[in-house]
TrEMBL record, chain A:
Residues 195-280 form the EH domain. Residues 529-567 form a coiled coil. InterPro entries: EF-hand-dom_pair (IPR011992), EF_Hand_1_Ca_BS (IPR018247), EF_hand_dom (IPR002048), EH_dom (IPR000261). This is RALBP1 associated Eps domain containing 2.
From TrEMBL, chain B:
This is Trafficking protein particle complex subunit 2-like protein. InterPro entries: Longin-like_dom_sf, Sedlin, TRAPPC2L. One of its GO terms (biological process) is endoplasmic reticulum to Golgi vesicle-mediated transport. Belongs to the TRAPP small subunits family. Sedlin subfamily. It is found in: Cytoplasm, Perinuclear region; Endoplasmic reticulum; Golgi apparatus. Keywords: Cytoplasm, Endoplasmic reticulum, ER-Golgi transport, Golgi apparatus, Transport. It comes from Buteo japonicus. Gene3D superfamilies: 3.30.450.70. GO terms for cellular component: endoplasmic reticulum; Golgi apparatus; perinuclear region of cytoplasm.
Length: 577, 151
């Protein structure tokens, strides 16, 4: 019976099951099941919805107002065929006779792929999800709560797949033919709410401010983790960075991410950015009500094609009533997903996302999904780490330097040396390797004390004038000088002695002191030494600040000098006549 | 681009090549029509010398004062060669058939400007490493449309 149906509905003629053909085919099936001859005219009859076997959810097999459905259906398919304006809203309106036919018809993006999914995803154990995947309406279908045509229409879609193997096959074949109108290709490029949320979360992991950009290099690292070849990533970037500024705003990022996901799932990248991925569109779309993408979740392995139910974007248009059901479905889907994909539950969103994204085999999907979440998590964490590290170097002056584990004493030495040398750069050059004993060290610390404090990674520079004592301490630790100096320079900039930092230091010193390898000294000596160290550090801090300021002044003066010299040069030819 | 049109000797030949510093190897080559391409490659390479000469001639002056558009590098009997160099020493060379008298200097300038803009767009792509061959589809489209205008 299937071949005749395919013939009658025109699929054979056209070569594939377009939406219209599909609808007609379904109607014919209903007709056949009702005993009507398989003719074009039959569909004009009022037929009950076709019954498809293996549907566990009988409740879903609610073919309600079939009468009007069919009549309306006919026009609907045609209308919808033109453009994928399958508004879920229409479908959502279950009361409308149209909705049921619309749902299955509309919900899958007129693309054969959706049809395909219907048959394939018909793992009814979790079949709900399968249904969902195919149609936005399926939500309605699935949920017994929805006693509407919508659900039935959803069944519609799935059932044919089940019963008509030829249909399925043809559908799968069709799937390959991406010959549908642009509307067909638009669907895969719609971003569902779930996807959008996921993208936004990823964006946040890279850039907390949603209104700001992600820089090119950050985005590059992130997308490179998706393991797509660089030329493709380059093309994706070209497509998504609409303003060509080398950075991605949130909508641009969502588009890019969506393209990456699509590519990973087997879609060919378009030559131009689909309309639904344009930043303006995405920004407007973000306000639309989203239908649960539980469809995606449930969608898992069963689908052979790489097509994701991007038409889930229809969910955007779904009616709100499906939301409660969706949550239920979500749970189902989640379970399914997890089983199917065995993705770490840590990234719940990801499994769901990836579920519908990875349309290939379950294995592929799971692999892809695993890879993706992992990559994402890695990327996000690595990016965060990188960002954090990037933030570390420019420590502000107030930084208490508690964390510095380098002996501040060394810094002192360096500071002195630097100052005398009038080092220009704010970054004091590495101190001479072996610090000669500082004769000027006025502190009465014993040399032994100096030795004691070597490795002390003391927070550098506390402001005090007794830098002399510090020098001794500094002697012992040449190696850490550069780092310390850096800290010092960071802390510099303030000439006023900072009592508070001192206090901080002192407070931190006790904590640091334990680091001191002053094992040999008695506690008393330790304390004395530590006090001296503290004082030295404070002096260091003051001197360091002074140093940096002077260096800045020096730089400015140099700049002025250069400017004047260039001016002079320019004027010279004129004067020398 | 040569698909639907039959090219005869009168058709203007347009070759655009981008060279990158410092070794001046080509990043992008597109010519219409595609026969005799080698000849144009050769021409363009030799014109690089002229470009370098022009750049060095203004070497003393500040870079800002140097105009990016170098103008007609040298005319031969068959074609004219135009040059353009960016501030980062990336050179664009265009070879136009001499018989195409409709192309005026302004148009050549605008074409170079378009090339330059597209090149900067490519640079903004973090996945593009400066010095790589240019495989951008957007760039190709732009060049195609430009050449179709001329041809």
């Amino acid at each position: 019976c299937c071949p005749p149906i395919t013939e009658v509905c025109g699929a054979k003629r056209v070569g594939y099951f377009g939406p219209a053909q599909f609808y007609i085919a379904l109607k014919l099936i209903a007709a056949a099941q009702s005993g009507f001859p398989v003719r074009i005219e039959s569909i004009k009859n009022e037929l009950p919805l076709p019954r498809f076997m293996a549907l566990k959810n009988d409740s879903e097999v609610r073919y309600g107002t079939t009468a009007e459905l069919h009549g309306v259906k006919f026009q609907v398919p045609h209308a919808t065929l033109e453009k994928n304006s399958y508004k879920r809203t229409d479908e959502g309106d279950k009361q409308e006779p149209k909705s049921p036919p619309m749902s299955p018809i509309c919900s899958p993006p007129a693309s054969p792929s959706t049809y395909q999914r219907v048959p394939l995803s018909y793992g009814y154990g979790k079949s709900r999800s399968g249904l969902e995947q195919q149609h936005g309406a399926p939500y309605e279908v699935r949920h017994s709560a929805h006693q509407q045509d919508g659900p039935s229409s959803g069944n519609y879609g799935t059932k044919p797949a089940l019963t008509c193997s030829t249909l399925n096959r043809s559908l799968s074949v069709e799937r390959e033919q991406q010959d549908s109108s642009t509307s067909y290709s638009d669907d895969p490029w719609r971003i569902t709410e779930e996807q959008r949320d996921y993208y936004i979360n990823q964006f946040r992991s890279l850039q907390p401010d949603l209104n700001s950009f992600i820089s090119g290099s950050v985005a590059k690292n992130f997308f490179t983790k998706s393991k797509l070849p660089i030329p493709e990533l380059s093309h994706i970037w070209e497509l998504s960075d609409v303003d060509c500024d080398g950075a991605l705003t949130l909508p641009e990022f969502c588009a890019a991410f969506h393209l990456v996901v699509a590519r990973k799932n087997g879609y060919q990248l378009p030559e131009t950015l689909p309309e639904t991925l344009l930043p303006e569109y995405l920004q407007a779309a973000s306000l639309k009500p989203m239908r649960d993408c539980t469809l995606f979740d449930s969608y898992s392995e069963s689908l052979p094609g790489g097509q994701q139910t991007r038409d889930f974007s229809r969910t955007e248009k779904a009616s709100a009533e499906e939301i409660p059901d969706n949550s239920a479905l979500l749970q189902d889907a989640k379970k399914d997903d997890k089983q199917a994909l065995k993705v770490s539950t840590a990234l719940k969103m990801i499994p769901k996302e990836f579920q519908h994204l990875t349309v290939k085999t379950a294995a592929q999907e799971s692999n892809a999904l695993k890879a993706r979440p992992r990559s994402r998590s890695y990327s996000s964490t690595s990016i965060e780490d990188a960002m954090k590290k990037g933030e570390e170097p420019p420590t502000p002056p107030p930084r208490p330097q508690k964390s510095h584990s380098r002996a501040s004493s060394l810094d002192l030495n360096k500071i002195f040396q630097q100052n005398t040398q009038a080092v220009r750069s704010g970054w004091l050059p590495p101190p001479p390797p072996a610090l000669p004993p500082r004769p000027s060290v006025s502190q009465t610390e014993q040399p032994s004390e100096v030795e004691l404090h070597p490795q002390t990674n003391r927070p550098p520079s506390q402001a005090e004038e007794n830098s002399a004592a510090k020098k001794e301490v500094v002697l012992a630790q040449p190696p850490s000088k550069p780092t310390r100096r850096k800290l010092r320079t960071e802390a510099q900039g303030l000439e006023t002695p900072e009592l508070s930092p001192t206090i901080n230091v002192t407070s931190s010193l006790p904590t640091v002191k334990p680091h001191l390898p002053v094992q040999k000294q008695s506690s008393k000596q330790k304390r004395a030494i530590q006090t001296a160290i503290r004082k030295n550090k404070e002096a260091n801090a003051v001197l360091a600040r002074l140093n940096s300021e002077l260096q800045q002044q020096l730089k400015e003066v140099h700049k002025e000098r250069i400017a004047l010299e260039t001016q002079l040069e320019q004027l010279r030819p004129v004067t020398v006549l | 681009m040569a698909s639907a049109v039959t090219y005869t000797a009168e058709w203007p030949v347009l070759v655009s090549i981008i060279f990158s510093p410092p070794q001046n190897y080509p990043l992008y080559i597109r010519s219409v029509p595609t026969e005799n391409e080698l000849k144009f490659h050769y021409t363009v390479h030799t014109s690089l010398d002229v470009v370098d000469e022009k750049i060095s001639a203004m070497g003393k002056a500040l870079v800002d004062q140097r105009e990016l558009y170098l103008g007609l590098l040298y005319p031969t009997e068959d074609y004219k060669v135009y040059g353009y160099v960016t501030n980062s020493k990336v050179k664009f060379v265009m070879v136009v058939d001499s018989s195409n008298t409709a192309l005026r200097d302004n148009e050549i300038r605008s074409m170079f400007r378009k090339l330059h803009n597209s090149y900067t767009d490519i640079m903004c792509n973090p996945f593009y490493n400066p010095g790589d061959r240019i495989h951008s589809r957007a760039f190709d489209n732009m060049v195609n449309s430009m050449m179709m205008q001329v041809c």
